[in-house]
Structures are given as structure tokens and as C-alpha cells.
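Quick one: structure for this chain?
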Amino acid sequence: MGTFWFWKDPSQRRLLGAVGLYYLAENMWQVLLLWRILTLTHSALWMGAAVAAYTIATLAVGIAGPHWGGGQRISTLAVAQAFLMAAGLGFALHSALSLIILAVANGWLAARIVPSLQAFLMRSSPVAELSRASAAYEFTSRTGMLLGPLIAGAALAALPLVWLFAAIMGLFITAAFLIYPLGGDQLVEPHLAEATHASGFADTLRIVRADPFLTLALTIRGLNNFLWPAFTLAIPFLALHTWHAGAFGYGTIRSVWGFSTVLGTVWLVPRLTRHLHRFYFLSWALTGMGFLALALSAHFTEAVIVALVGALGSPVVHIALDTHIGRHVDAALQGRLFALQQFIMSALALVGLGATTLALSITSPQRVLAASGSVMVIAALTGLALWSRQREPGSKSAPGFGKRWPPAKSQKPVDH
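Got it. Here's what it folds into:
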């Protein structure tokens, strides 16, 4: 059965179509936000504030869970995002502060939708096909990440801002239209509501502590997300001042990075399905080397080639974690765990954002990006060494690995 067998099922086509359009809209908005802040202020501090504003709501969602707050359907929240874009047309076009306020509101909705989409896909897929389901999600989401920056970069260079806001609004509405008829887009399914609401942040942490792979993988992911703002903030400066490529060049680098992840999903992931855990760490090492090589690129063409190679392994990170959660965590708790993953990513990225902003005020973007890439490689290889030791016969952590949480009496460990 092929990796993208989901496309044969009409309901899965609608779901994956909604995922692709949603990520397209989100990535167009992120490029619009950062580039508009940069052109209004020419300040790394304001850009850092914009990224912080966009991600800060994720921290609250990670603690409370995606079901917390108004609206209990994914489609409802997507429509709310469309209304926010419409509001942005009225008050945020020429004000950096207004854009940041808009980013807070939109970030809160996005932080609830993304883990809910992931949990929706996991619980609606056969257990034997979870890795393929995750690969299909990765393919469609990465396609949105690929096209979003490219379209936004071209639009920023050639069209009025109003058109870009309107396009993003239309994409949110279309995604909501696709997913609404599926009937399972509740943030918490009715038969899982009691267990989901009864569980808390501490219960989610216990799931992680009970699973050696999750503990190590989320630790490495947190560290690398602390380092990721170096890419977010350095690339616009490099595109503008070092590569002299402007807005379109910035969008192109982000899109090429996204294209590489799509290519990795189609070509690389099917060859690694039996070794996802090991290549989880190796893919982070490849990403770190990509950061380092981008920092050393003197010309735009070199940067494009580096971006194409550097992101090839990125899909493995998401597919390995999503598949592991789908196989070993009870459906009622998966949404919370995906939200916790977002919380870890965003919390440490927020701290890293402050550190990166400070570093950029002291030294060059090239040095900041190179240092971040180097640490990422070291952390990934250290994680791989620790994981290999955990998997050795006689390791204290090995016997408990692979059990589903909460454990069922008849549940047998899944072999890896």
C-alpha cells in the first residue's frame, strides 16, 4: 500500500486538502507579518516581538489543552481566523503594534487548531497505517509551507497588502469549508471528552516521563527550538544585506526549505519507516549542518542549494514523533500531548528568540546562525548516542519502552 493511499478516500482527501490550505494560509501570514514589521521598523527587536507575540498563546494552549476556550470545532476556529484577517485590513496595515496585537489573537487560534488536526488524523487512521497517515499529513502541510512563503514573497514584491490579507482570509474559509462536513473535527470527540477534560498538564508530563523515547526526543526538540530563531531572524537580514535578494529572495529561501521537506517526505521517509527513532536524531544533525552552511553562503545561489539539502531530513522529526504518539498514547490524551509538544517548542523558542535578538545586537547574523547550527549538530549526535545506549540489552529503560499510556491489561509492548 502506497504512502499516500489516503488520497483514495474522499473524506481523507477533504481532511488533507484542508490541512494543506490551512498551512498555506498560516505560512503566508507569517511571511507577511515578519516582512511588514521589518519594513516598518527595520529593527530586529520589533521582529523578535512579532515572533514572540505570534507564539506566546501556544504556551497557554500547551498547559490548558486545545479544547480550552471558545469554539469547539476546528472549522469554527478557522473561520474566526478569517475574520481576524478581515479586521487586519481595517487597522493593522500601517502599524507595527497593531500587527503584533493581531499576531497574538491569530496565534492563539492556530495553537489550538494544529494539535487538534494532528489528533484528528491519528484517531481516524488504522493503527497499522499511522506512519503513512503521518507521512500524508507531513506531505500536505509541508506543501503549504513550501508554497506559502513563495506566494507571499512574490505578492509582497508586486501587489498591494490588501490583496494578500484577502487571499489569506479566503484560504482560512476554504479550509473550514472542507473540514466541516467530516463531522469529526471537534477539538474533543464526545466519547473522549470526559477522559480529556479529566486529564491535566501533570498527567501529560507523566506520559512523557514514562516513555524514554518521548523524554529524550522532546528534550532534543526543545533545545533545537531554542536555537531555531537564529534561522527565523537571520535569514531576512541575510537576504536583504548579504545576498541582496530582497523580499522575493527571503520567500524563495523559505520555500526551497519547504520544498526540500516535501522531497524528503516523498523520497526519504519511505526508506526509513523501520528506523524512524534513530533517524529522528540524524535529521536534526542534518538541519544543524544546513544552518551552518547557510551562514557560510556568500551568494544567493549557494544559499538556495544549501536550503535544498539542509531540510531533507526534517520530515522524519515530525513523522517519528507523531507515529510514536499515535501508537503508544491513548486517543483521549493525544491532543494534549500534541499541545504539550507545541508548548515545549514555543516556550523554548520564545526564550531563544530573546537570546537571538540580543546576539544579533552584538554580532553578525552569520555568526549567530553558524553557532546555532553547530550546537544543533552536537545536541543531535549526543541524543543519538544516548538513545543507542537506552536500546541496548540490559538497559534499565528498555523494558518499559513501547507500552501504550495509559497501559491496558491486555496490551503488549509494540516491537521496534
